[in-house]
Amino acid sequence: MRKADGVCGLIFLALGSLIAYDGRKSGVFGWGPAGPEAGLYPFLLGAGIIVGSLIVLAQVLIRSRRSEPDQPFMPPGALKPLLYVAVPAALMVFLTEFIGLYLAAGLYLAVYMRWIGKNGWIKVLAVSILLPLAGYFVFEKWFLIPLPEGSLTGRLGF
Amino acid sequence: MEALHGLLSGFQVFLTPYNIVVAIVGIFVGAVVGVLPGLGVANGVAILIPMTFRMSPNSAIILLASIYWGGLFGGVITSILFNIPGEPWSVATTFDGYPMAKKGQAGEALTAAFGSHFVGAVFATVMLTFFSPIVAEFSLRFGPPEIFAVMMLTFSAFVGLGGKSATKTVVSILLGLALAAVGLDIITGRLRLTFGTVELMGGFNFLVAVIGLFGIGEIFLTVEEGLKMEGVSARMSPRIVLDTIKQLPRYWRTYIRGALIGSWMGIKPGGATPASFMSYGFAKQFSKHPEEFGTGTMEGVVAPEVAAHAAGVSAMLPMITLGIPGSPTAAVMLGGLMIWGLQPGPMLFKEHPDFVWGLIASIWACNALGVLIVLCFVPVFVAILKVPFDILMPTIVFVCAIGAYAVNNRMIDIWYMILFGVVGYVFKKLDYPLAPLVLALVLGDNAESSMRQSLVMSQGSPLIFFATPIAAIVNGAAICFFLWPAVRLIRARLGGGKAPRPAAAA
Predict the structure, then answer these.
(1) How many CB atoms lie within 10 A of CB B96?
(2) Residue A114: which domain range?
(3) What is the pLDDT of residue B293?
């Protein structure tokens, strides 16, 4: 947990520096035609994040000096189920770019239910076909909200 | 009497068949959203905002508000029957609600909780009806320095009152403000924080952030903890409901105390959760049988629920009068207002009275409708919880993806949603609070423009933030809140150095 806290603090330190640096480019303490320069506000935010992340890092250091008991960031054995959720979800988004959300979601539902949930084929097929279909009618037809079309299947309308 | 007149006109807005159907659908959806793990209320409202684009603002806000009420009701069901608090402010309800359910009094516990919700809501709605026109009238005199001061107070409340690490809360607020600043600068039109990429020019939409942080992030957490759905079945019958309702007036002291705590705490951001714990704590302290708390006493269900719902309602007060949301869900609704082309804040009462009073009237009606709906459909909501997780989880991801995409019809937003999901998971694990980040993301543009307008007014002197009495007082209070954790730390150090003081000083 402490290590993760430290890494996260470092990331925020980098982000804060990036924001402050970007603010500097737009001018910080100057006075433009519309009042204070556009960079002042982001610069202040970035500076604040830098200070905050330094305090977090200092706290992590103090705690590890005192060698206080530390818990792991994740309970043992939690990484695998997490990846089982995260990787297929990311794959679904990736596939959506090509075959549209409905097909991608149907595949995603089927894959997850079959190989991770170990459901029977009938249940898998029923849910993975009916759910995207329901989504199609509710959003595309009823509320007239277009959902992502794929670059390959877009001409077919989904 | 202006308020009563307004309320009557509000009911004229609300009482159309279309709006009533919208409200019932909203309550139902909200209750489902509140019941499902991984779909919080804020998140449910965010996903449904794109569907309101084609509605009139009056119906749209009624839909979102009734999802909110439905969600508050739904969270109760999981806390009592499954010992899983659907929302943070339901945690205190599990202390006595779940033991009651295990003793076979699930029906009684649910009825007591719903009844208490109703009482809390009525109390807070009375306050809302009569106080909001006064607050709005008062805040009409606010200029940019005062608006900036109120925002500072909002953010400082998280630091001073939130239980989490003060530094991490500040970092969370600043990150939210920085995310809001990505894209076009609203005043000069310059590009900021885009690093030359086209994708970042559009900035980050807070709805996508909410869906990712609260929806996907919550799923990761649920998976990690290993979801165990061990529910207690609830027996509901009109007899149980009536018998329980007859018992409720006995707790009138708890009701008044809880409703007052809730209405007061709810005005400040993040108030519902501390309010529910405070109300529970007070009820236990003043009870003749404090030892019964935690073993399944009805008063232990009544106390947190009445405060939580009162706080949920009074979170609307600063939203409609000042344009400052009191909770993440209110923040999402506020964002909705901006999307529908309404400027939240005191002018709303003057320019769109039908909108404001329609909303207030719908709060009255929806909480009454809500009690009836949830009481009748408890078995349905329980059945939803019995759906296996490996069907539920991908379905929630699918729905979240639709919501994220529909905000702007941008594919990149679905990627952002996944990214925010990871961020939400890490934040939760490392104890960075999420609510301040969301609030900062929603309020960011306003905070910046009010700060810059103030500086223009004063030609660059930061003293303008203390130039008028209101700005000086509010900013002073904000600074006190910001410094409060440091003061507490120093006092604890000094106290610890001299003599061991009682815990109250720390």
Answers:
(1) 29
(2) 79-156
(3) 87
